[in-house]
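Minimal example, chain plus S-adenosyl-L-homocysteine.
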Amino acid sequence: MPSNLLGLDADGLTHWLAAHGEKPFRARQLLKCMHQEGVADFAGMTVLSKALRDELSRIACVASPAVIADNVASDGTRKWLFDVGTGNAVEAVFIPEEARGTLCVSTQAGCAVDCAFCSTGKQGFARNLTAAEIVGQLWTATRLLRTAAAPRPVTNVVFMGMGEPLLNFDSTVTALRVMLDDNAYGLSRRRVTVSTSGVVPMMDRLAEECPVALAVSLHAPDDALRDVLVPINRKYPLRELLAACVRYVAKAPRDFVTFEYIMLDGVNDNPAQARQLAALVRDVPCKFNLIPFNPFSVAGTRGTYRRSDAARVRAFAEILTDAGVVTTTRKTRGDQIAAACGQLAGEVRDRTNRAARIEFRRGEMPIPPPLQA
Ligand code: SAH
Ligand code: SF4
């Protein structure tokens, strides 16, 4: 099997090259060829010696998951479906705005956290993506957007697609390092955001190993409701989660965390809950991003939640703002092509692991089910 160099960060590539008798500066050259120039064929990397190009062609490859579908919505949102093998597929979404272009990437096929309102969770968990499969989403999007009729750069990356990035920690961190590397994508730490449902110990590790902007999916002002909506709360309740947020901010490139809060009609959107929320986060440097719920249907299940109406979202935002918490409401983009938050279904056809959701209990470490052969 040739080694896929797309998923190696500078250290990994340097080690791999050293094992083949090559000097460290070759890693920089290779990173530039692969990620900045988008070259996949070693023969085209003319900065390398002919002998090295021939050797690489024999023992290595630059392989991104294949694109199965590529759709553009009328608002310019573009969604790719990637084949990650054994009947599984994941999605990435590009969201163009005036001053920036954000790519939303996936980290797992399916997700074991199984939040009550999320279509990815409803599909169960298939497997972790490799670093090459995560980086491959950015690599492919960058190449395709560069050659589009109206070319756009990817200026920001958010880990808000399918899966829980902090339950696929090693691949996520390797992918982050490639994204931040000046010889590769050169994105600043503030322009790369990891979103987590609240895997507390891994938030601390991320702060140590690769601090980037952090978003935390809060969704409820108390443990009783959060236990139901975001089941990992049973393992890491709000008190621990908020303490982890405060610790994270001390090391983070931004001086706040972003709390994501999905607006579910009659469930978590009443004014008393907004006041409770403001009190809850009093000591956490944070901003809020309210996300109108995006309905979805997955074979066999129908969403039981409804989106809060605009007036209710406004009233909720106003209470938070009046309490001194900066609050924005996320515009829904790309729903025409099912590319909005939480609608990324991919196609987890390999459902052998469908029942393999994690049972979160206090005092146990959640380990995702093993990789399927
Ligand atoms: N697993 C991580 C990142 C992926 S989910 C996390 O949960 O944070 C990215 C965001 O989409 C999360 O805030 C999640 O709560 C939100 N989301 C999930 N399902 C949604 C839906 N149906 N409508 C709107 N947002 C949704
Ligand atoms: Fe997983 Fe995030 Fe969906 Fe929850 S919201 S099931 S953590 S992808």
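Residues 115, 117-118, 160, 164, 195-197, 217, 260, 262, 291, 293-294, 296, 341-342 surround S-adenosyl-L-homocysteine (ligand 1) (CB under 6 Å). The radius of gyration is 21 Å.
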